[in-house]
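Researcher: Here's my situation. A collaborator sent me these components and asked whether they could plausibly form a single complex. I don't have experimental data yet, so a predicted model of the whole assembly would be a useful starting point for our discussion.
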Amino acid sequence: MNRNAAHPVLRVSSLSRNFGGLRALNDVDLDIRAGEIVALIGPNGAGKTTFFNCVTGIYVPTEGDVFACRPGMETPVRLNGMKPFRITELGLARTFQNIRLFPSMTVLENVMIGRHCRTKAGILGAILRDGRTRAEEQDSVDRAYDLLRELNLAEHWKEEARNLPYGAQRRLEIARALATEPFLLLLDEPAAGMNPQETLELKELVLELREKFRLSVLLIEHDMGMVMSLSDRIFVMEYGSRIAAGTPEEIRHNPEVIRAYLGESDNA
Amino acid sequence: MNVTMRILLRSLMVSAWFVLLTFPVLCVKVAARQHTVTVLWERAVGMFAVMIGCSLLWMWYFHRKEHGAESGSSAVSSALAGFSEKWHGLTSNRVFSSSGMGVLLAVGVLLPLVGSMYQTTIFANAFLYVMLALGLNIAVGIAGQLVLGYAAFYAIGAYAYGLLNQYFGLGFWVCLPLGGLLAALAGLLLGFPVLRLQGDYLAIVTLGFGEIVRLLLNNLRDITGGSQGVASIPRPAFFMELSAEQSMNYMYYLTFAAMLVTIVVVARLKNSRVGLALQALRDDEIASEAMGIDLRTVKLQAFALGSCWAGFAGVLLAARINFISPASFTFMDSAMVLSMVVLGGMGSISGVVVAALVLTLAPEYLRAFSEYRMLLFGALMVLMMIFRPQGLIPSRKRAYSPAGAASGSAEGGRA
C-alpha cells in the first residue's frame, strides 16, 4: 500500500486541552491517511468539537502536537498555535455543528468568501479594477458557481443564504469549505437535523466529493448508520479521552464502546 | 367591536398619561415677576385631542399590520418599498443610471452659477457630510464595526491641514493626502487595541477615542490653540487671484469632485474581494476566520479605509471655512454622521448619499422650523426604525454573471 508509505495527512499525538481545571481533551491520538474517511464519535460532551477546534486553530492545544501534511508535501507542518486562517490556507477546511453561513450574503458570495485565501486582489486593485483584478474576480465567480452546481445548489445562487432550506444550508457550508481547496475536510455533525433520505444523499455526496477532489475527510457524527457505512476507520471518545479506534466492524463489537454508549450492567 | 373598544380605551389612557406628564411643563405658565400662575386648560385639552388622534392612528396601523394579510403593505412602507424598487430598477439599467448620474453631475456643476452664495455654501457642506457618511459606511455599514467617535478622524484631518500649514507652511495639496493618511493611521492606532472587541464594547471604546481627541485638541493649548482653534487657514492656491466669491466656488467644485471620487471609490471597494471580506466580517467573525480570512488585517482595513475619508473631508473643511476649533468635532457630529448611515441603509451607497444630503440640507431649507429641528429629527429616526429599519434605500446585492449560469448576465443579482 503506497498510501501508508507517505505521511498521514493529519497526525495528532497526545493532544490535551484544559479549560481552567477541566480537562476537555486528554492525551488523544489520531491519524488520517490520504483519501481516508475517518469518523470521530462519542457521547455528547466527549470533547469531539473541542478536538475539532484544536485542529482548526480556534483553540490552542494545552499539550501535544498536531501535524498536517498535504499529499505530496515533504515535511508535515505543525499546526499548534497557528491562526485559523493560516490553517485554512494550508488546506484544512471545516464546517460547523451549528451552521455558520454568512446569512445576509448570497449563496454565491458565501462560496466566493471561500476563495478569499486563494486570491490576491488588494485595495488598489479594487479601486482601479484593472484587468488582472477583474479576471481574478470572474475566476472566483465561475469556480464558486461550479462548486454550487457540484452540490446541487446552482438554482439558489442568487438567494440570500438565510433563506435556504436547512439541508441546502448544510450543503452550502460544504461548498464554501471546498472553495478553499482543502486536502482535508472536517465536517462537524453534517447530518444533524436531516431526515433519513437526506442523510443517505449526504453520504453519497461525501463519497463522491472524496473521489472528485481527492479529499480526506474527518467527520463528527451521531448518526451511527451513516458513520458505520461511510467511514474507513472510527475513533471513539469519552470524557475527553480516546477509548477505541479501528474499522467499523471492530468498533461495533468493542466492549468499551458498547459500555460508553449503552452503560454498564454492574453486577459483578 | 371589542377590539375597537380596547384600542379606544388605550388611546384615551395613553393621551391622559401624556397630558399628565407634560402638564407642569407645557400647561402651567408661571410669571415670576407678577407672582401669578396661570393654568392653560385649553392647551391641555388641545394636546389631549391631538394625542388621541396620533395614538389611534398608531394603534390602527399596528392592528392592521398584525392582522391584515397584507402585513407590510401599509401606505408609507409600501410607498417607500416602491421607491427603492424603482430606484434599483433605475440604477441597474445602464442607460438610465448613466443619464441619471449625468443629471446629478450637471446640477452639481451648474449650481454655483445659478444659486446664491448661501446655497453654494450649504451644498458644499452637504457634500462634506456625504464623504463622511460614506467613509463611516465602510466601517459600520459594510464591515459592521460600530464606530461612535467618527468626528475624531474628521478633526484629525482638519487639524492636520491647520497645524501643518501654521507651523511648516505646507499647502493644501500636500496636506490633502497627508490628512487622509494621518486619519487612516489614527484609525489603525485605534484598530489595534480593539481587535478583540465587538458590538457594544467597540462602540464604547470608539466613543472614548472621539472624546480623547476632542479633549486633546482643547487642552494642548500651546500646540493647537485650545478652544480658540486655528484661524486664517488659507484656501488652496489657484493659477490666478480669486475674488471671495470665486474662491468660494472653487472650494465648492473641489468638494464636489472629492465627493464624486469618494462615491466611486467606496462603491468599488464594496464590490471587491476586500469588500466581500468586510461583509463576511460583519456577518460572522468565527466563520470568516475559518474560511481563510485574516481577521486582523480585515478589521484594520475596515478602520483605516473608513477613517481616511474623514481625514480628506477634514482638510477640505479647514480649507473652506478657514477656521477650525474643537467645537466643530463633538459627539453630536459623530452621531449625525452615524444617523445618516442608519437612515440611508447600512452598507448602501446610494441610500447613504441621499440620507446625508437630506439630513444636511433639510435643516437649512426648513429654517422656519429651526426650533423644532431636533424634535423632528428624533421623530424621524423613531419612525424610520419602526417602519423601515433597513433604511431608505437598502443595500443592493451585486450582480454577478457566472460562466455556467443560463440566465446569468441579463438579470441583476437580486433574489
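Model: Some features of this prediction you could bring to your collaborator: The first helix of chain B runs from residue 2 to 27. Chain B touches chain A through 37 residues (CB under 8 Å).
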